[in-house]
Amino acid sequence: MTVPGGTRHAAGELVKPALELRGVRKAFGGAQALIDVDFTLRPGEVHAVVGMNGAGKSTLVEMVCGAVVPDGGDIVIAGRRHGALTPRKAHAAGVSIVHQRRSLVLGLSVTENLLLGRLPTRGGRVDWRRAREEAVRALADLGIDVAPGTAAARLGPGERTLVEIAREVHAGGRVLILDEPTASLGGADALRIHRLVRTLRERGTAIIYISHHLDEVLDLADRVTVMRDGRRVVTVPAGEVDLPALVRAMAGERLVQDRPDRARTFGEPVLELDGLDAGRLRGFGVTVRAGEIVAVLGPAGDGQSELFGVLSGLRRPRAGRVRVNGRRLRPGSVRSALSAGLRCVTGDRLALGLVPGLSVDENLDLVRRGLARPWLVRWGRLHREGRRARDRYGVVTLHSDPAVTTLSGGNQQKVLLAAWLDTGVTACLLEEPTNGVDVAAKADIHRLVDGLADGGAAVLLASSDVDEAVRLADRVLVVRAGRVVADRPMDQVTRDDLVSLTAGGTTP
Ligand SMILES: Nc1ncnc2c1ncn2[C@@H]1O[C@H](COP(=O)(O)OP(=O)(O)OP(=O)(O)O)[C@@H](O)[C@H]1O
Ligand SMILES: [Mg+2]
């Protein structure tokens, strides 16, 4: 089914498209990732691309920026047909991209990142004064309030994304691709990104916007293209479609459902944190009982993200204690945390969660065996157990056991959860557990987390996603600037309270 495209900008109809894809195809090792996709993008248009994990969204845009070579079809940029694009050619043709996996160099300053590869020189040396002026101008032009001398590592996640977008815009592209720019951002940061996208649209930039946040898509986009299993299902003006229709188009026959309310009973205290000081976190304490889910909610980077390091044992807190079933964990000891049955799932799957050089089953096996007998690989069992875990967690792959890096973002997330949550969990910390997963997978993961709690685990959820906290948690703590500003049973707080608390409002 094809609905003819329209746009909120009447003028958009008259100008030639900024980008046109005609019948593009791509297979990976015989499996079709994209099948005959047509797509147009007009100047001054935000064109959202949505679809389930693995639908082909990233592959489609990576093709436009020359990172993936199509097997067939045409790519037409500003009226010019390109057969084989390379990243350099795509860039020269005016295409910029902020990849699903972020790419700021954390050891460099904002200025260096912004001007990477094109720092101004004088007499053969970098002209730092001019570089700085240029960076100040570029940031001010987009209304981004970040000091150019700051090391990228010190920026919050929202600021990192803004700087990445600024870098691409500064390179002067007419087509800007944003692949899940708000995936791991809280509400306030996401709004800053939306504001920037609107500014760029007004200036005539053509923007492809990939996101799993469908309400944001409907709010921001002029048109929406839905992808499913490598095909374009439909392209519609955003004003002519609602959320349920979008989900139906994305999911096809697949069922998307949420779990009904359950009455939970809690047991004894299992996971006790007391007076923790680490990074931005100050004097943090919480007790999670058996069967209970407690959310620690706050803008990413405001303190709740220190929990992963401390609880996993990768990082020694400056002060404070962690106890599991009354037994104190040795600070800064991974072994101590693991042997107590404490499982920590990172929110940064590629940096800290998965081993990129290994296959899916090998990654699963690594965690399983790391916890048991690491000296013997039994391949038959590795694949048997791997398949079981992939099925249980709904990991969709084109081949039977591919390298984990070739999976789509959401499917990598499922592998990470499968690796850690299939291993006998007494207590766990889940950091942004549904980061980048589609609506159906999100519901599946929520059911899995419910299941963990129903089985008696103590679950701590570190998140910037208010709706996820509301859906999952029995109790919620809001952390801002490193301190707990609210601590409530979930039935005594509304979603709106939480939105305003995390965005900087006062205690209701
Ligand atoms: N280099 C590769 N080798 C093999 N398969 C690949 C490769 N890149 C992508 N794929 C496969 O192509 C399919 C489409 O992946 P893609 O990353 O485009 O999905 P997506 O729609 O962006 O999903 P997500 O929402 O999870 O990011 C997936 O099944 C993925 O595993
Ligand atoms: Mg993707």
Automatic annotation (TrEMBL):
Its domain of life reads Bacteria
UniProt keywords (A-Z) are: ATP-binding, Nucleotide-binding, Repeat, Sugar transport, Transport
Keyword Nucleotide-binding in record: yes
The ABC transporter domain sits at 19-254, 265-506
Note the InterPro entries from the entry. Answer: AAA+_ATPase, ABC_carbohydrate_import_ATPase, ABC_transporter-like_ATP-bd, ABC_transporter-like_CS, P-loop_NTPase
Q: Which GO terms describe its molecular function?
A: ATP binding; ATP hydrolysis activity
Claim: ATP-binding is one of the keywords in the record: yes
Matching entries from Pfam families are given as: ABC_tran
Coiled coil segments of this chain: none
Q: What is this protein called?
A: ABC-type sugar transport system ATPase subunit
